[in-house]
Structure formats: C-alpha cells, structure tokens
Amino acid sequence: MPMPPDQSLDRRRFLALLGLAAAAPRPTEALELADANRLITENREDGIRVLSAQGEFVGARGAYYGPPVPFAQLPRHLIDALVASEDRRFYEHWGLDPRAMARAVWSTLTGRTQGGSTLTQQTIKEIYLKEHSPIVRKLLEEPVLAPILELNLSKEDILFVYLNRVFFGGSAHGIEAAARVYFNKYARSLSVLESAMMVGLLPAPNRFNPHRNFELSRDRGFRVIEQMVDADLLTRAAADRAKAQPVTVAPSRSAWGGFYPRGTQIGWFARWAENEANANAAPSARKGTRTITTTLDPRIQAAAERHLEQALRANARTRAIEEGAVVVMRLDGAVVALVGGRDYKRKEWDHATQAKRQPGSVAKLFVYLAALQEGSTPESRISDAPLTLGGRPVRNFDDTYLGDIPLSAALEKSSNTAAVRLAIRNTGEVRTLIERLNIADDPGGEAGDLALGTYEARLVDLTAAFASVANRGRMVVPYSVQRVQDPAGGELLTRVLPARSEIRQVLAPQQADAMRQMLAGVVQRGTGKAADPGFWAAGKTGTTTANRDAWFIGFTESYVAGVWLGNSDSKPMTGVSGGGLPAQIWRAVMTDAVRNA
C-alpha cells in the first residue's frame, strides 16, 4: 500500500533527481509515484472504448484497456508465474537487480536483446519511459525512478499497476483485456496454464499470440510453468496437472486495430463513431483512452448483420453478389445499426458511409418531392407513355406503358418515363433538393440523369434523406456519438439535441406527409411489396444499369433503414433488383427491430 503522506517523496527532490537522469524533466503533475490507481491510467496509449446506447462495452479501437483488476482478485498462480518468469528476486530487491542490470546493459551495447530489468523497472518504463533511448533509460532513468517507486508503493501495488498496464498483444493492455481477448473470460478465472500463457506473451506478444500459433503459445506456457517449479512456486505434481489442463482460445475478435467482443462486424460502426468523435474534438482532446457512448442498439445491429450475411451466403455465388451494406437509424438520425460490408476482417472499405454508388430509382424520391413542392399532388396526372430523350429511348423496367396515370401510381410502378418528364419540368428544384438534403454537392447531369439516379451518393446520406421525409420534413443529420469522456471520466463532448422547433425545415410538412403516403403505396402495391413487414411501412426500390446496384430504403413509424447490394468493382449482379433481395433483407431487419421495441 502507499506510504503515509509524511513519508512520500518530496516532489522537488524528485524533479531534481529526474533532472540528473534525463535532459528534460516531465511536468510535475505527471510524476505521482505514490498513487497506484493513478499510475494505471497515467500516459496510456491512445485508444477508444465504444459503448452501446445502453452503456454496454461493444468494442475498442487502438489500445484496449480492460477495467483494473484489484490485487486481491488476481489469481495467486498468475502472480507466481509472473515473478518466476520475469523477476525471481522481486520480493528481495529494492527496485534494482545489479547483476541482471549489468546483463541487460551489456546486451543493449552489443546489439542483442536480453531481459534484466526488474518488474519495478518495467513498470516505470511502461508508464513513462517507453519512448526514451534504451541506453539512457537503463543507465540513468530506471536506476533513479525504480527505487523511488519502491519507496512509495508496496510490492503488491507494483504488481497491481504492472499487470493492469502491460501490453499483451492483440491491442490488449492489462490482464483483464488480455483474458477477454484470448480466453473470453475474466482475469480472476484464469487457470494455471492460461496464466502461464499470458505471462509467456510478455517477451514477444505478437510471436506468442495464441490466435496466431496456439502450439507455440502453449509451449511457451509450459516453459513458464517449469520456471515456477524451479522457483519453488509450484510443485512438480501441480505443474504436471497444470500442463494437462484444457485450454480453449476464444475466436479472434480483433480486426483493423480494434477488438469487438460481440463480433468484428461492429467494427464498421465503431470506426464511424471514432471518426465522428474526432471530428468534434481538438487534437489535444484525443489523447489517452477515451470512452464513447454511442447510439448503437446491439439487438438491431445483430439483426442487420445476421440477415445481410444470410442473404449473401445463400445468393453470392448464384447471383454474383460480393458485398452489401445496411444502415438503421431512428427518425432523428441516431444510427442504431451499421454494417458496411460482408466481412470487416477482410476489407475495411465501408459501403455504408464511404462508398458512393449510383442510387438508381431511389433518386426518384427527390423528383417527386420537387413535383409536390411545385404544386402537384399524389392524384395529379403524369404521362407514362414511351419517351425519347436526346435521341435515346427512355425505357421502363418492365417495358410496359400505361399512358396518363396519377403520380402515386407512377411512383409505385417506378415509371422511368414519368420520372424523367417530372424532372424536365423541375430540373432546378430537383438539384436544389439533392443539395439541401446533403446527397451531393453537385449532382451534375441533365434531367434524365437526375430522374434515373446516375449520379453518386452514399447509403447513409440517402437513408437520412428518407428520414427527413419520415420526420415531416425536418432535416435529419445521421449521428452515432452521444457522449465522449476522457481517461479520468471527464466530459469531452455531450450531444444536446435541438428542440423540434429548432430543427431546420427542409420540406413543408404537408409535402412530406404526401410523400409518406406515396412511399407507403410503393410497399403496399408497388415494386416494394417484398419489403412489406405486415405493419405500416414506406419505401422505395432502386436498381441501376445492368444490375450493378440494388437498393431498398424506407421507414416505419420508429425506424428508417437502407439496404444496398452490389460488388466493389461494380460488376453486374445476376437478376438482383431493389424489389428483390434488398427489400427482403429490409423487411427482415425491420421486423426484428420493431419486435419488442
């Protein structure tokens, strides 16, 4: 335990000693060697902890630190394995082991790598000196700081700090994080062999990573067990029993610099949340391990992952589909689920928030909204007759033409000829809507391009545009971050949502209501019937030339969701249209989202 205040180190003496050990003393506030709990969080590597909307830990990006484990809850065999392997004279020395130090310095000078630092020295290095020159650190800094640490902390406190700080590989810092990454259990539940394998990681965490080479990691654990026997910390009989213990390594949940205990597909959401948090924070506020409380609903996220994967697994080969993406948000833009592709471990490119694809007939939303703004109603008539534009025929998907029909019927059948005629009438208004709803700064092209969606847009932005319709014309900006806290728990960012009256009105409420009615008809009677979940829903299908992209985007009374299927290289799919698989995936996800909501 820490020494009484009257016996702790005088800071001015400490700074003077440190001035002898290093050219530039560190700030006084960082040099508190009498507080074990503070040392655990001091100068941590940069990283984020991602929490769901309910406060559940769902992922970490960068350095992953688990909750500190009190010394009393650390298994005795874990402590014994650490001491036997790393510092057998730990309980006898005063922070330095001269013989071991001499060996370590000599190995450094001769270009070889050999341990020799005590656990006390390793603790000091882990917190303050990792970026320092090895020669300066071992000859000057550690010999000064290690004895001071021993004066201020008990041996138990030093082990407590070390085991809750040290890097175990796999982005895991501290024994709790490592136990969860490698064995999916709490540190207090580690067996003798598992503890030995954890200690065996320390000299070379990547080399002995059990996810990469289980046999090598286990053999390293056997060696640590033999060291425990040599140090009289384990009997031969107990060692033999420990070596026979079954070990089950947890499936790897690490991908692209992150750890995701619920599955790596959450990595899409976690990375987007990190980007949003960074965009709203100064660089100086991105240090250490921050905690981000997000809008994620793990139940809906799991449904989105499951239904997308099931559809792709069943149809990928026969229909030439490689990728898909899903976004689900509440009506105010709070994203509750995001899947940016089929496999986050294989490909980091996010088809939900990064990829820009042609929206096809989904873009008719803006054409019909512009018509409503210009005075049309769902009952207004528009020609569905054949049309030639710029010397080229405009064809309907089914090659059928019904003459004059109501706007609502034209949208339900996704008439291309009717949409182009509407876009010709209101080209400027369509462009303005596309820009106002953050779909594209400059959609480019002529009326036909605007009507048929040959410009490019992101799934998350298109989904937010439908949310603005669901929200009676109020602007919706998708977001994933509710709160960001610094390593000490202080608030770095707290989202304060504006009152409804303060949200920018981008569509007149009556026009948004008319659009809701027309989109509901698409699901009830039109091209989106496969999306009908059995309760009120509205949405729009979209398919691009040669079936390169297939979309369904729509909403219920509670959620807005978008689904996209396609290939990263834009190769055509086989018979995949927005009213088929995307609509079916949308229906399955929405049914699960609404159930028990």
UniProtKB/TrEMBL annotation:
<dbReference type="InterPro" id="IPR001264">
    <property type="entry name" value="Glyco_trans_51"/>
</dbReference>
<feature type="domain" description="Glycosyl transferase family 51">
    <location>
        <begin position="67"/>
        <end position="228"/>
    </location>
</feature>
<feature type="domain" description="Penicillin-binding protein transpeptidase">
    <location>
        <begin position="325"/>
        <end position="559"/>
    </location>
</feature>
<dbReference type="GO" id="GO:0008955">
    <property type="term" value="F:peptidoglycan glycosyltransferase activity"/>
</dbReference>
<dbReference type="GO" id="GO:0009252">
    <property type="term" value="P:peptidoglycan biosynthetic process"/>
</dbReference>
<dbReference type="GO" id="GO:0004180">
    <property type="term" value="F:carboxypeptidase activity"/>
</dbReference>
<keyword id="KW-0645">Protease</keyword>
<dbReference type="InterPro" id="IPR006311">
    <property type="entry name" value="TAT_signal"/>
</dbReference>
<dbReference type="InterPro" id="IPR001460">
    <property type="entry name" value="PCN-bd_Tpept"/>
</dbReference>
<comment type="pathway">
    <text>Cell wall biogenesis; peptidoglycan biosynthesis.</text>
</comment>
<dbReference type="InterPro" id="IPR012338">
    <property type="entry name" value="Beta-lactam/transpept-like"/>
</dbReference>
<comment type="similarity">
    <text>In the N-terminal section; belongs to the glycosyltransferase 51 family.</text>
</comment>
<dbReference type="InterPro" id="IPR023346">
    <property type="entry name" value="Lysozyme-like_dom_sf"/>
</dbReference>
<dbReference type="GO" id="GO:0030288">
    <property type="term" value="C:outer membrane-bounded periplasmic space"/>
</dbReference>
<keyword id="KW-0328">Glycosyltransferase</keyword>
<keyword id="KW-0511">Multifunctional enzyme</keyword>
<dbReference type="InterPro" id="IPR036950">
    <property type="entry name" value="PBP_transglycosylase"/>
</dbReference>
<dbReference type="Pfam" id="PF00905">
    <property type="entry name" value="Transpeptidase"/>
</dbReference>
<dbReference type="GO" id="GO:0006508">
    <property type="term" value="P:proteolysis"/>
</dbReference>
<keyword id="KW-0378">Hydrolase</keyword>
<dbReference type="GO" id="GO:0008658">
    <property type="term" value="F:penicillin binding"/>
</dbReference>
<dbReference type="InterPro" id="IPR050396">
    <property type="entry name" value="Glycosyltr_51/Transpeptidase"/>
</dbReference>
<keyword id="KW-0121">Carboxypeptidase</keyword>
<protein>
    <recommendedName>
        <fullName>peptidoglycan glycosyltransferase</fullName>
        <ecNumber>2.4.99.28</ecNumber>
    </recommendedName>
</protein>
<keyword id="KW-0808">Transferase</keyword>
<comment type="similarity">
    <text>In the C-terminal section; belongs to the transpeptidase family.</text>
</comment>
<dbReference type="Pfam" id="PF00912">
    <property type="entry name" value="Transgly"/>
</dbReference>
